[in-house]
């Protein structure tokens, strides 16, 4: 039986309350999620300084539910209503990916679809290399740079969220935003420090179908076409828009719904 939290949020797309639930992950951390609709399961994976509620403002979530999909939206550890452990060990060894694998098992999903956006695509890419239950997936708002374990952008933001860090022009806005939404800065530091790395070789071994989708003004995470080239069974769609807004759009939803057919 699922454990139900007395915690609700307004689901923007349908104007009804979606109930948050939780399961206990491999190391005792509670991971919250919402589970709506019936039919083919789609897991939506959110980005950095965010949580699952970020998908509520998207056309995609609304249309998935309208078209009869089951939509599962977790808060990754360290974010939203999920556990935010303060010890570094809880963020190592691809813990976020293991949480998602555990959630799929907890919900008894035999086959499912995953849509990641921004940092959620980084998590999804690693998940793809480990879980044959994923039938199709979408990597949105991401280039190939995350395959480099010494990626300077990852290191830059990991350092920015460390206690007593000196901020730069590139990082001060993100830290200010995190503070404004009462995000856990220590958790964000550990999440960036131990962000999963998927090599180009590993991407080349992915057997399932993958859609790469990005905005034409979004290159801050590397070249999405290079990511497309690295994954054999991938398709690529370039949309008009920037990193922060394109995933909310009708065009983003249409590209994904078409891919899932």
UniProtKB/TrEMBL annotation:
It holds the Pfam family Abhydrolase_1. It comes from the Bacteria. SUPFAM superfamilies: alpha/beta-Hydrolases. Residues 41-142 form the AB hydrolase-1 domain. This is Pimeloyl-ACP methyl ester carboxylesterase. It comes from Cellulophaga baltica.
């Amino acid at each position: 039986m699922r454990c139900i939290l007395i915690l609700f949020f307004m689901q923007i797309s349908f104007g009804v309350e979606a109930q948050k639930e939780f399961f206990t992950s491999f190391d005792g951390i509670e991971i919250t999620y919402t589970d709506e609709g019936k039919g083919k399961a789609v897991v939506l994976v959110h980005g950095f300084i965010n949580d699952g509620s970020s998908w509520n403002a998207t056309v995609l979530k609304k249309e998935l539910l309208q078209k009869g999909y089951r939509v599962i939206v977790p808060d990754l550890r360290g974010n939203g209503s999920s556990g935010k452990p303060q010890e570094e060990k809880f963020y190592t060894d691809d813990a976020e990916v293991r949480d998602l694998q555990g959630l799929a098992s907890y919900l008894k999903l035999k086959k499912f679809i995953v849509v990641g956006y921004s940092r959620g695509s980084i998590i999804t890419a690693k998940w793809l290399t480990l879980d044959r239950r994923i039938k199709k997936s979408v990597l949105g708002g991401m280039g190939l740079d995350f395959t480099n374990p010494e990626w300077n952008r990852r290191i830059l933001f990991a350092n920015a969220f460390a206690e007593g860090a000196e901020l730069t022009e590139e990082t001060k806005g993100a830290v200010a935003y995190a503070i404004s939404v009462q995000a856990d800065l220590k958790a964000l530091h550990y999440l960036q420090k131990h962000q999963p790395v998927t090599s180009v070789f590993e991407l080349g071994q992915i057997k399932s179908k993958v859609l790469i989708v990005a905005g034409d003004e979004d290159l801050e995470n590397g070249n999405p076409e290079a990511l497309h080239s690295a994954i054999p069974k991938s398709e690529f769609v370039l949309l008009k828009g920037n990193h922060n807004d394109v995933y909310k759009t009708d065009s983003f939803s249409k590209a994904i719904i078409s891919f899932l057919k």
